What does this fold into?
Amino acid sequence: MEWNEKGQYKGIAYYHISHISPCILWLHGYTMDSSIWQDMINKFPYYSHLVIDLPGHGASVPIETFPSLPVLTKAVIELSSEFEVKYIVGISFGGLIAIQMAIDAPDNYDALILNSSPVGGGPVDTYAETKNIELIKLYKLGVKNEVLCDTWMQGPPEIFTGAKKKAELWNFLKAIILKHKWAELRNNTYSMFVGHNQLTNGLAGIKIPVHLLVGEDDMENIKRCAEIIRRTVRHATRIYIPNCGHLAILEAPDTCTEILKMHFLTDPSTYISN
It folds into this structure.
């Protein structure tokens, strides 16, 4: 994939493709990086695209560079404004950031598309909390990245269960996660970001449409978070993706693409001259 522009903004690595249609910002999940979106981007050739490596991932600076979720979100909002982002697609932890962007910059965007997004201050998965403690212990023992990767991808929690049924996707994600540095485990930094309470700090004030893609087999806490968003945000819709787990947009990209084109994204033909 050829980018028109790539660089760093406040230590956040970004990659941009320019077109005449509106710009979509793609936000990846924990331990992944911007490369997970290459297939989805190819399915929307008439849009502009901005993808970033979240801090602590890929080519970006460590997560400790940003002391809180609002501080990180402020930097992402500033970067997205440079490229006139109108839509935000977020998966898992990336969805948490997308929600905060809509809270902090309510007039900047036209819609959010969230797949398996938690809500700060919302229901948590006890297996995920246990897995985090296990990973911290292993990290402090100095084990190799291969051990951390295998431990993380093995359920419970059932984050990668759907992906495991698809060998090509499983191997693709594993290759990405093997490169993750895991430095956030030193101070359990990510718990601070996930713990930022969006329920009492602006969720109900989101003005724009929020479209929820939920795998039918996703974890119960994520389904509960989706229900909270559906009930709290004025213009929220929810669509269940059959035969999918936590990473539905990666597990069933063709299905999710058709849903996005049918319901959510502006018809790009309105921007293309004959």
